[in-house]
Amino acid sequence: MILGSFNFEDFVYIDSEEGIKHPDVYAHELTHYTISQNSMVGMLMLVIKQVAEQRDFRLRSVLKELHDASVVTQEMTAMYAQYMTHLMIHKGALAAEYDKTFKESDYYRKYCLADFNTLVNNPQYEEDGLYSLIELAIVAMNIDYSELKEIDWVDHKTLQKAILRNPIKYYPDFRYRKLVY
Fold first, then answer.
1. Which residues, in sequence order, are CB contacts of 148 under 8 Å at separation 6+?
2. The whole model's pTM is what?
């Protein structure tokens, strides 16, 4: 398995000397990069990560809270990009085997929304659908948390309560589900 990672910085790391042979993994990690660099939540997480590392370690729990509120948005979209990239490149038996392996993976079961197969098998969502899904993820993560400026941001439980109090406004994964379906 080729592993990749995106770490909020201006790079995507693919852990393999063979990585160039796996553009689907690049598509997955670049999708994370695109969503994070083009959404308010993604940029907020970048700033909080830097502050947490340099000044206030207590903010790590806030970073985790924001991550947990957006992980399905990030992973579902990145997995879709990976899946569609692979199917655009490979045809026939290779595509069928990948489809089977992909959909039986724990990663797929953990992060994919219930109607992923409907999305993937809809001709409207082929190449153009990938861009549309990325745009929907960015919209879902364009949340103005400045309205929550009065809460104690160091206390991640307070942030969690504020997010859950109004999920359509502050919870990226909830917003993503509403936008996609």
1. 159, 162, 170
2. 0.83
